[in-house]
TrEMBL record:
Residues 18-189 form the NAD(P)-binding domain. Gene3D superfamilies: NAD(P)-binding Rossmann-like Domain, UDP-galactose 4-epimerase, domain 1. This is NAD-dependent epimerase/dehydratase. Pfam families: NAD_binding_10. It comes from the Bacteria. InterPro entries: Ergot_Alk_Oxidoreductase, NAD(P)-bd_dom, NAD(P)-bd_dom_sf. It comes from Bradyrhizobium cosmicum.
Length: 294
C-alpha cells in the first residue's frame, strides 16, 4: 500500500507524535501491521504502552537538536499534541524540524470549527497557519468533538447528577477509531504526498445531550436525565468536582459550542478516506456502558 520513498533505503519510516494518546495509540496499532517502520515520539523514555517493533525517539521541545534527530530519516509524520498552553510552540517546533530534515508529508490532527478565541480552537488555527507557510505536503484532519468526552459523564450519570450548559444543542461526535483510520489512510496515501489538503471528520449524525440521555436510559434500564444548567452554574460544578480552572474553562467552551450547534456538521469524509461508514455514538455507548453503571 505504501511504496518506499526515495529517502528510504528499506521500509518507509513513519513518525508518530502523540503516540500514547487516544488517536496515536489506535493509529500505531494499525501501522504495525503494514510494511513500514514506526517511530514513536515521546517526552519520556517509557515505552511500556507501545507495541513491540515500534522504535522510540525521546524528544525535548526545549532542545531543537532532539527534534532534528527524531525527524532524521523520517518519510512521513503524524502530528498530535495534548491540549496545553505549550501546544502551539511545540507543534510549530516539530513542524520546522520536519521541514528541515526533509520529511515529505505531515498529517496534522487539528479540530473542526470556525475561527474562535476559545482554546484549543485558536491554538490549532495558529498551527495550521504556520503549516500553510511551509514547503511540505500535508493533510490536516479536523475532527469534530471526540465521543470519548462522554466518559466524563460516567460518574455523574451513575450518581444521577449529570448535566451541563449544552442545552438541546447538537454535536456530531466522532469515534477516536474513525479519526485513527483516517490518519492511517492519509499517511499511506502515495498519490498525494506533495498535496496540501484539509478534511472535516464527523460521525454519521448530530445528537443532543438529552438524546444521549435517552439512549443511556435504554441501555441502563433506568431513567437518565441531562440537567440543564447555566454556564455559571456548570463552571461552579466543574470546579467543585476538583478540576482546575484551565480544564473547567475548556469544558465550558465545548458546552458553549454544543449549545450553539457549532459542531453539528455532517460530512462523508470518513467513508471517503477509509471505505467504511463512521461509527455512531450508540456503538460507543454500548461498548462503554460499564462506565455509566452504578
Amino acid at each position: 500500500m505504501f511504496n518506499p520513498s526515495k529517502r528510504s533505503a528499506g521500509r518507509p519510516r513513519i513518525a508518530v507524535a502523540g503516540a500514547t494518546g487516544r488517536v496515536g495509540s489506535a493509529l500505531i496499532s494499525k501501522l504495525v501491521t503494514e510494511p513500514v517502520e514506526v517511530v514513536a515520539l515521546t517526552r519520556t523514555s517509557d515505552a511500556e504502552r507501545l507495541p513491540s517493533g515500534v522504535s522510540l525517539a525521546t524528544v525535548d521541545f526545549d532542545a531543537r537538536s532532539t527534534l532534528d534527530n527524531a525527524m532524521r530519516g523520517v518519510d512521513r509524520l503524524f502530528l498530535a499534541h495534548g491540549t496545553s498552553p505549550r501546544q502551539v510552540a511545540n507543534e510549530i517546533a516539530l513542524i520546522d524540524a520536519a521541514v528541515a530534515e526533509g520529511v515529505s508529508h505531515i498529517v496534522k490532527l487539528s479540530v473542526l470549527g470556525p475561527p474562535s478565541r476559545l482554546h484549543p480552537f485558536d491554538w490549532h488555527a495558529q498551527i495550521e497557519a504556520h503549516l500553510a507557510t511551509c514547503d511540505i505536503g500535508f493533510t490536516v484532519l479536523r475532527p469534530s468533538s471526540f465521543v470519548d468526552i462522554l466518559a466524563r459523564a460516567g460518574a455523574p450519570v451513575a450518581n444521577d447528577t449529570w448535566g451541563g450548559a449544552a442545552g438541546d444543542g447538537l454535536v456530531n461526535l466522532i469515534d477516536t477509531r474513525d479519526v485513527a483510520d483516517s490518519a492511517f489512510a492519509a499517511l499511506l496515501d502515495d498519490a498525494h504526498v506533495t498535496s496540501q489538503r484539509a478534511y472535516h471528520l464527523t460521525g454519521p449524525k448530530a445528537v443532543s445531550m438529552p438524546e444521549i440521555a435517552n439512549e443511556l436510559s435504554g441501555l441502563l434500564g433506568r431513567v437518565v436525565t441531562y440537567q440543564h444548567r447555566s454556564p455559571a452554574e456548570q463552571r461552579e460544578k466543574l470546579l467543585a468536582s476538583g478540576l482546575n480552572e484551565f480544564v473547567a474553562d475548556l469544558l465550558l467552551g465545548l458546552d458553549r459550542l454544543f449549545y450553539e450547534s457549532v459542531l453539528a456538521e455532517t460530512t462523508s469524509t470518513v467513508r471517503s478516506l477509509t471505505g467504511h461508514a463512521p461509527r455512531p455514538v450508540t456503538d460507543w455507548l454500548s461498548d462503554n456502558i460499564s462506565v455509566f453503571q452504578k
